[in-house]
Amino acid sequence: MRIAHLEFPDKPLFLAPMEDVTNGPFRLLCKQFGADMVYTEFVSADALVRGVQRTEQKLQVDDRERPVAIQIYGKDPEAMAEAARIAEAARPDLIDINFGCPVKKVAGKGAGAGLLRNPPLMLEITRAVVGAVQIPVTVKTRLGWSESQKIIVDLAEALQDCGIAALTIHGRTREQMYKGEADWTLIGAVKNNPRMHIPIIGNGDVTTGERAAECFDRYGVDAVMVGRASIGHPWVFREMKHFLQFGEPLPALSYQEQLEILKTHINQTIDWLDERRGILHIRRHLAASPTFKGIPNFKEKRVAMLRAETREELFRIFEQLG
Q1: CA torsion sign, 287 to 63 to 241 to 211?
Q2: Which CATH superfamily is domain 2-246 in?
Q3: Over the stretch 12-70, which tens digit does the pLDDT of each residue have?
Q4: What global pTM score does this model have?
Q5: Consecutive H or E run containing 79
Q6: pLDDT at 8 over 90
Q7: In angstroms, rounded to a whole number, what is the distance separating the alpha carbons of residues 322 and 320?
Q8: Among 233, 249, 250, 318, whose CB has the most other CB atoms within 10 angstroms?
Q9: Active-site residue numbers?
Q10: Are strands 6-7 and 2-3 parallel, antiparallel or unpaired?
């Protein structure tokens, strides 16, 4: 499979862009465990144009992550074009446009999935970004705004006509947020539309190798994007790759092996940010990680783990779980 000049193996798996999740250390871990492409946290075009330092940090990419995409969002075509030029200077392999984020602070202000209510502006933004940069531009969006407004089949053609190199579709509407089940039938309809010639990447509820295989086989997508299943579980890509290759589950990593991966993630995140922000950031991963499932009488330790304020305190709790 190819996206513009980028070549991928058969049935590639991509790490979804997730705010407060896919920072540099996490992307690198997922890459090391088999993710074929990774995406940054989404980057506000307005903040990037204003030179907000914390936003600019999101542009930092490591050559070991490649191929890597920087994802931007906004609702003004000129600001999005300028943000794309700034992001291009950070040397990603792709620029991805976020037309899918459903949260109120983004969609409610007319950006992200909010643009599903204004397709003409969405297309204007897409053309502006494609025209602003020399590297390929891709788009991530949803099925539509609501159950009665699932516009993705026609929208996909229109986005393709704007010059994008690939399209990722999350199988939910904005109205659904992350509730209910992802509907892959319309993703398949886009992929099987004879007028579509760009790669179609499917996203939504892919948590196991079995499900990834089913999505490739049943819907014909060119790649599968993995989001929430990777939080606190970067080795999920190794598990999925093994199933896609051999048709059987990979034996689970031991508790100690999983714990060492989490420790590495904690250390790298603290190095990336600082101890206070790093510990705050890592809590989401610890809360979601499968590592601690099944540990007897874990509730109190879990509360302590998620309240820990230093690396030393957190690692001491790990030792007590030993």
Answers
A1: positive
A2: Aldolase class I (3.20.20.70)
A3: 999 999 999 999 999 999 999 999 999 999 999 999 999 898 888 899 999 999 999 99
A4: 0.94
A5: helix 77-88
A6: yes
A7: 5
A8: 233
A9: 101
A10: antiparallel
